[in-house]
Amino acid sequence: MTSISWGWKRTILAIFCLAASTVYGQDISGADAQSDDAQAAVAGPMLDASLPDARDLGFDSALETVFPMTPDMVRRFRGAFDDNEKAVFERPYPKTLDDAALVTLEPGEEPIELRVAPGIASVIGIYDATGRPWPVRQYVLGDNKNFEVAQLGETASAIVVSPLARVGWTNLVMALAGEESPLVAKIVIDSHKAHFKQTVQIMKAGPNAVDLALADTDRLPSPGDRQMIATLMGADISGNATPVPVSGVDALAWAVGEQLYVRSQHALLSPPYWSSLAGPGGVQAYRLDMHPALLFSVDGRVIQAILDLP
Prior knowledge:
This protein has a five-stranded mixed β-sheet with strand order 1-9-3-6-5. Strands 10-12-13-16-15 form a five-stranded antiparallel β-sheet, covered by helices on one side. A four-stranded mixed β-sheet has the order 2-8-7-4, with no helix packed on it.
């Protein structure tokens, strides 16, 4: 085999490298040009401000998913929801009852009646004939499912009743301290009128009585004497009662027929009266004949009151 000299080898290798660099150089520069054109084609739309960014599209989609309603729709929806809540739960404000009942605890006596309304706590206050609180030793409620009862303090004289239903009735039995006969109350749910407070006065002296003369049964009114109860409460005075101005003593008076009804925190000394009733806070009511002047005991002094009779 004919050997090729080293000089020829170097010449052939140089020619080959030159040819290869020419071919591949053209291909590489062409590919680079094509790549630059492709990148420009892709980058062009992304940099075009007239086309939405993919991130903006995703953000808007997330907002619509989390908040499908516009703020105006939310306000309208909330207003409709509030209107429906009011329609379901609103109720007329019941007429307020604040009166008293006279009780003898005698056999056959009708139970007192307490009217209650949903959402309102009604209280029964129990007092003796001298106006002193009569503690409740124990109580039993007939319906624990639709009514709730609480005593305002241990052995207190006040019982709070709240209905848990919109209709119905039950009874409440209360054992008074030192008294064998229980006090019974009928409790009726009434959405139109309700007792906010009812004063129950037992026509006898209780364990806290301090002035037994006030419990004199000969001078106590009958349980059905509504005018005496109204005079003691200073409210619900009958329509045929005429107010009588009183001067000289802090007192109120009404004329009913030939009878005079007087309410005061001061003890009436003269003239003699037919009946009297003591209430909470030292308030006393009297029924007597018509007189133009009354004598009261005020802080240990005898004070005259003048009445302007009709």
